């Protein structure tokens, strides 16, 4: 059986070197940061590393065996982000099963849709599920856009401020990219 881990590594192609990514868990709400796990999936969608599911049971600490959550790691800012960044659409489109899954497979379709297939959650399943990330996080296949240019697609302060690359302008109630927010006549609100 695999050992549970919450360590993250990045491979730098130009230098051909592995480095560990350290993130301060104690300063972040646990709901944004995945606990140690095994048999989960990770995929890159837009500017995010998307972690889904996995075996995460820790006796007397974490009594769920199969996680049913999706976690988002912003690759540009190197931080875990809140689900608020997904906007209102996420409230109705969460994982449709009550029990999570591990040892499943995942792939990305059209640059913005996470496909989940199979896995185990007490029994082997043959589910095929799809979750399409909103256009402010992943515009779709072949549509490369600088992450900050997607900020105006956020429609509220809450979802805008959950994106570490964006800031909310209260003067005109528009979400701007942090470095391209010069159109705002007030300070950009980022949290």
UniProtKB/TrEMBL annotation:
PANTHER family listed in its UniProt record: KELCH REPEAT DOMAIN, MULTIPLE EPIDERMAL GROWTH FACTOR-LIKE DOMAINS PROTEIN 8
Coiled coil: none
UniProt KW keywords: Kelch repeat, Repeat
Keyword Repeat: yes
Pfam families in the cross-refs: Beta-prop_ATRN-LZTR1
SUPFAM superfamilies named among the record's database cross-references: Kelch motif
Domain Attractin/MKLN-like beta-propeller: 2-129
Gene3D superfamilies per the UniProt record, alphabetical: Kelch-type beta propeller
Name recorded for this polypeptide: Attractin/MKLN-like beta-propeller domain-containing protein
